[in-house]
Amino acid sequence: MYKIPKATVKRLPFYRRCFESLHEQGIQRILSSQLGDMLKIDPATIRRDFSYIGELGRQGFGYEVNKVLLALNDFLDLNNVEQCVLIGVGNLGRAFLQYNVMKSQQQHNLNPIKILYAFDVAEEIVGKSYSGIQVLHIDKLEEIIRENKVKIAVLSVPPKSANEIAERLEGSGIKGIFNFSSISLNVSRNVYVYDVDLLNELQSFLFFVKNKYE
Amino acid sequence: MYKIPKATVKRLPFYRRCFESLHEQGIQRILSSQLGDMLKIDPATIRRDFSYIGELGRQGFGYEVNKVLLALNDFLDLNNVEQCVLIGVGNLGRAFLQYNVMKSQQQHNLNPIKILYAFDVAEEIVGKSYSGIQVLHIDKLEEIIRENKVKIAVLSVPPKSANEIAERLEGSGIKGIFNFSSISLNVSRNVYVYDVDLLNELQSFLFFVKNKYE
């Protein structure tokens, strides 16, 4: 089975953003060496990454900005917005709702998800809306997921509830979990879990600074 | 110059969290193959990553949980908390303040930064506190950084202001920027910039789900 490396996939949205910015500046063509300077990534890595997307550039001529931008949007399938649910409307859940809804309203920030509902158990939260997204009781989770054929979930519950909820998500047909819960989830290989942990990122960042990385 | 790969550094906080959890469960020893199953990372990658930290395990015997945990805390220098400023107290800035202050209050979540002050320009925000952190006017930025010898900044301003602020941060002696501003910063190689962009992460995540990665 053909697989583009995970590290490459993680760089593609960053390239896309960069090409969007070049496009807005009216720049039509760019060399991988110029891109390398801009993005602080080795030009050989950039050329290898782009080779997975298709025949995007020619040696000495560089990349046509508009062509690459369209190819990246297409490759990342950004014109298809996925319906999504969010579970856990605590501090982090609310912050994510606010951020995500804001991004949906901005131009050029192709937000790949649309949050249909949020879920929680706390009486004082259920029934309210945050950033325009209604909070339902967690009892309705399976019903809503099945009715709307939702495949994507954002999990921002406390660690102690995370695995119980993850199991219910898998049981109702969820295929991908964007996991803010700071623990490794025990789901089957049918569910792709993407761990997001700002504290981990801060720890790596500090290491790079203290050890003078460039 | 000796350099541990960036990809390894990015995995170390994740390993650390995992070993903390093993330690709490009273597990004293673990094989790299068991770790690989738990973390869904190739055991060979885990062994190579750990080889950068020191002589942590023996073939067939595995890793002593407590020894690895202490080595990781030490290697990541997590007992030294760095003073930090945050610039831009919009939605994302407030969400980060709330999240970060919350993490500082939790056990075992070794937060490597302490936010001294936040900065903004908006009249209705300056003078207020969010999550216990006071917001000062951006005019005071250089003075506060120099007085407190701050080396680390979290940048959560809109894209259009990001480079102007980044230049001021570099000019006042900042060495690392945790960049939420969604654009590439034009700073010199003396400043380490760590880009954090949840929308990029969502785009990569959706690609993995749609293309059935494991």
What's the structural blueprint in terms of helices and strands?
The structure is a homodimer of 214-residue chains.
Chain A: H1 6-24, E1 29-30, H2 32-39, H3 43-51, E2 57-58, E3 62-64, H4 65-75, E4 82-87, H5 91-105, E5 113-120, E6 129-130, E7 133-137, H6 141-147, E8 152-155, H7 159-171, E9 176-179, E10 192-195, H8 198-210
Helix pairs in contact in A: 1-4, 2-3
Describe this structure in words.
The structure is a homodimer of 214-residue chains. Chain A is α/β, with parallel strands linked by helices and 214 residues long. Chain A has two domains: 6-74, Orthogonal Bundle (Arc Repressor Mutant, subunit A), CATH 1.10.10; 82-199, Rossmann fold, CATH 3.40.50. Chain A is built from eight helices and ten strands. The first copy, chain A, has a seven-stranded mixed β-sheet with strand order 6-7-5-4-8-9-10. A three-stranded antiparallel β-sheet of chain A has the order 1-3-2. In chain A, helix 2 packs across helix 3 (43-51). Chains A and B meet through helix 1, helix 5, strand 10 and helix 8 of A and helix 1, helix 5, strand 10 and helix 8 of B.
